């Protein structure tokens, strides 16, 4: 009820604005020439009093005509293009048996490698002392009870105090 | 008749846009490349790893020309923001890849990051780094039934050939 009143108020205020604008610009012919002339020279008066029909209103926006039934809603919501797509590129990792994507590394195996790498890096950091102190030599990682071979001559040796892991053979 | 501007369509354009602009992109790649030369294996987003791969290999190509080459030294000076890596580049990485014509880096994809952004990650490394290998070499397990049977067969054959050669 208040909505229709509000809509009516808006419509009337807009029409009032329109007539004010017309008078200001001078297109208004209601205060016409002193000579009273009958006929079509006078433009028709703006109609303020009568109830405006809905077809004249400019507040005509797109709105649903009918309630969408649950059947129609179900058809739209369960359409295959809205469902989650099935992935066919999942396979088990050969080493650990966890699932992985075909073109990607196994997360579990990479975690192991990453942890070991970070421990090696911490050892390197301790050896270097201060930051920005990289030596210009190759590095080789040796585990417990391992001695440097002929290929490791002239390289910086990083010692890790544990047994060599089975997945770290070069 | 062409109805739209060529600037608004990007069909076939391969250059990637990263960061705030071309300069920002180069600065970002410079930081990643410095990290890669320092640590020899880094983990970043897939797109950044792909972009840096090209620059990493070009840097090695320049380094192979030797540190007396002025252009190489300028390139290394620009691309490596931490200056203690310039001797490492010329004395460690360049000799390591002397005999290889190309393909000094390896990029492998990782599962998406665990954060809310679920970013596609990748690990990029220089080949010949001291860390554990990303793709572990397949080692046949001797404790399989098939392998045990094959081992037994090989030993039998060896015994037969030994007795034959004796007699």
Automatic annotation (TrEMBL), chain A:
GO terms for molecular function: structural constituent of ribosome. It is found in: Mitochondrion. GO terms for cellular component: mitochondrial large ribosomal subunit. Keywords: Mitochondrion, Ribonucleoprotein, Ribosomal protein, Transit peptide. Pfam families: Ribosomal_L32p. Its main location: mitochondrion. Signal peptide: none annotated. The keyword DNA damage does not apply. GO terms for biological process: translation. It comes from the Eukaryota. The keyword Transferase does not apply. InterPro entries: Mitoribosomal_protein_bL32, Ribosomal_bL32, Ribosomal_zn-bd. SUPFAM superfamilies: Zn-binding ribosomal proteins. Belongs to the bacterial ribosomal protein bL32 family. Component of the mitochondrial large ribosomal subunit (mt-LSU). The mitochondrial ribosome (mitoribosome) is a large ribonucleoprotein complex responsible for the synthesis of proteins inside mitochondria. This is Large ribosomal subunit protein bL32m. It comes from Astyanax mexicanus (Blind cave fish).
From TrEMBL, chain B:
The keyword Metal-binding does not apply. Pfam families: Ribosomal_L17 (PF01196). Keywords: Mitochondrion, Ribonucleoprotein, Ribosomal protein, Transit peptide. GO terms for biological process: translation. It is found in: Mitochondrion. One of its GO terms (molecular function) is structural constituent of ribosome. One of its GO terms (cellular component) is mitochondrial large ribosomal subunit. Coiled coil: none annotated. Belongs to the bacterial ribosomal protein bL17 family. This is Large ribosomal subunit protein bL17m. It comes from Astyanax mexicanus. The gene is mrpl17.
